[in-house]
TrEMBL record:
The keyword Isomerase applies. Belongs to the alanine racemase family. The lineage of its organism: Bacteria, Bacillati, Actinomycetota, Actinomycetes, Micromonosporales. This is Alanine racemase. It comes from Catellatospora methionotrophica. Pathway: Amino-acid biosynthesis; D-alanine biosynthesis; D-alanine from L-alanine: step 1/1.
Amino acid sequence: MWQADAQSQVVVDLDAIRANVRTLRSSTPAQVMAVVKADGYGHGMVPAARAALSGGATWLGVCTLDEALGLRDAGLTAPVLAWLWLPGQPVGRAIGCDVDLSVAGLSQLAAVIAGAREAGRAARIHLKIDTGLSRGGAVAPEWPQLAESAGKAQADGYVEVIGVWSHFACADAPGHETVDRQLAGFTDALDVAKRLGVEPQLRHLANSAATLTRPDTHFDLVRPGIATYGLSPLDDPAVRATLRPAMTAHARVLLSKRVPAGQGVSYGHTYVTQRESTVALVPLGYGDGVPRHASSAGPVQLNGARYTVAGRVCMDQFVIDVGDAEVAEGDEVVLFGPGDGGEPTADDWAQAAGTINYEIVTRFGSTRVPRVYRGDAA
Ligand SMILES: *Cc1c(COP(=O)(O)O)cnc(C)c1O
């Protein structure tokens, strides 16, 4: 599993991604759009996309046009939706490559019409309604105008309105009052669009949390991101048990040595040995995705035992105090993995760093740490 001469690596289990998508797919009659933005949440956009498609996803979701074009350049032909783009970017090229575009307002609609002219074909668009996240999307008072203009552009042959969609603010807190309110706002927007003659084939609203907890929000398509990678957006252990984390991050001990009692360790000496101890140097730091906020808190597994980061996480390395345990250079230190070998999980690191599991895996996978793949490459 270790690459020759690697001192640290991230292992991505493609079979886990495939199994997670299969699980999600079998839990709903809706189609599954696997969200592979941000380099597949750090797992590698293209390999993650292939594994998700082989697990039953029929759509891919990304943020940027670059990401969407990257999927096309890799030869993936599945439908792709890109939702974060600016007029002025290569919209015509994206349309020519069969990339579906989210449209949240009249200026984006105008850019899409111009892009369709340039590409010589109708643009496939998904109109976005802001039902309360207050991020992307048209707010309710703007919606009739947007739907009407899109309907006109459709009649003129410039666009095909494939979808109407929205995004939740608090679906990770099931029972939060905004979930029902956003769902109601979404159905209102669909009614308005219908009255204006816009009836898309795909209505979609659910992220991972809503996919896992609210079947009444699934409509025609669900958009799980984090759950695709086997992590849960919810605290519920029952939900967590249905998913398999795909990423393992580990390193090899670079150096181990005895230091005296009362010795400060790492920058700022925020950790001081209580007695003579062996300290081991782990060659991973915040330049590799280890959160500095996990200083003196992040858990690791080494030779079957658990230890905690001793003092500050540095840019390239951190230290653990193993007491009198025998540790040799080259021994494997696991930061996180699926957890079934007793190793910590991305959830444990999120807790140690005061963040969410999304940030742990996304940052880890997008650094200089070599990434290796396990499982069927599809
Ligand atoms: C990132 C994202 C998702 C996926 O969210 P998860 O919580 O990871 O499932 C779905 N839809 C949109 C618009 C997103 O930006």
